[in-house]
Amino acid sequence: MIISSNLAAQSAANDLTRTSAALSKSLAKLSSGSRIVNAFDDAAGVAISMRFDSKLERAHAAKDNVSNAQSFTNTQDGYLKRVAKTLNRMSELAMLSLDGTKSDADRSLYNNEFTQLKSYINDIATKEFNGVSLFSTANVESVIDSEGTTFVMNGINLSSTSTTYNSVTQLSTSIATTSAATTALSSIRTAITQLASDRAQVGSYQSRLNMAGDYLAATIESFTAASSAIKDVNVATESTEFSRQNILNQSTTAMLAQANQLPQSVLRLLPS
């Protein structure tokens, strides 16, 4: 029995250091909900989870892009529906103007409404979505996935530079006479055919964007689950480990206290 070196106390102190560290680590995992608190917990897991997290952030941003593009095409189609209704009414007015039982004075009355409808289409042609023209020759591009894939939507041109629509909406187009109404009706029929093609084109973009949105939703779900499997702590398992380390920590503390008292028994061997 010696006094200068208390090996039992040193051993107990080392054990207490280890159990305290393990207890703190377990507590940090439970409080953060993460299995990886420090990089040294799982270096490979940290690298993989960072790549997954980056992909998730990009996917969320791309989903916002797709949502905005969907809103853009929905707005386009909403206006094009109104243009279709307007062209249908204009064709009806042109047919009424071709009635041989009506005078030019009657046709002039029809032409008043026809002129207002032309102005309405011209007004729609100037509409914008967040500062971006809805109906021009310019293409609209959007990135629709986490890898930067670009989706291009060709412009739908309703402006005066569109020969098809301009032949209907230009100032000289009229139904005030029989011959003018005949010419106008031909132009309107051509414009309706073009409008059908334009709406079909917008519809194809909407379908593609819907698929892109579904893909991104599946990507976010899959990579969230994969990242969770790497990073998230198993609460049941870690709670068990915390309880174990807590018991060890308490028992080691008690044993250290006992070991520190051992040298006092040497006093009993010394003469009084």
Can you tell me about this structure?
With 272 residues, the protein is mainly alpha-helical. It folds into two domains: 7-33 and 233-269; 44-231, Up-down Bundle (f41 fragment of flagellin, N-terminal domain), CATH 1.20.1330. It contains six helices and four strands, in the order H-H-H-E-E-E-E-H-H-H. The protein has helices at 7-32, 43-97, 104-124, 163-169, 178-231, 235-261, and strands at residues 128-129, 132-133, 140-143, 150-153. The strands form two sheets. It has a two-stranded antiparallel ribbon with strand order 1-2. Strands 3-4 form a two-stranded antiparallel sheet. Strand 3 (140-143) and strand 4 (150-153) form a beta hairpin. Helix 1 packs antiparallel against helix 6, helix 2 runs antiparallel to helix 3 and helix 4 (163-169) packs across helix 5. The radius of gyration is 39 Å and the shape is rod-shaped. The two termini are 18 Å apart.
Provide a short characterization of the protein structure.
The protein is mostly helical and 272 residues long. It is built from six helices and four strands, in the order αααββββααα.
Computed structural class: mainly alpha
CATH superfamily of the largest domain: f41 fragment of flagellin, N-terminal domain
Strand order of the largest sheet: 1-2
Strand content: under 5%
Distance between the termini: 18 Å
SSE order, as H and E? HHHEEEEHHH
Let me know the largest β-sheet: 2 strands, antiparallel
Radius of gyration: 39 Å
Number of domains: 2
The overall average pLDDT, rounded, is 85
- The geometry reads as rod-shaped
Using DSSP, what is the number of strands? 4
CATH class descriptor of the largest domain: Mainly Alpha
Low-confidence stretches: none
Name the CATH architecture of the largest domain.
Up-down Bundle
Per DSSP, the total helix count is: 6
**What name does CATH use for the topology of the largest domain?**
f41 fragment of flagellin, N-terminal domain
Q: What proportion of the residues is helical, as a percent range?
A: 55-70%
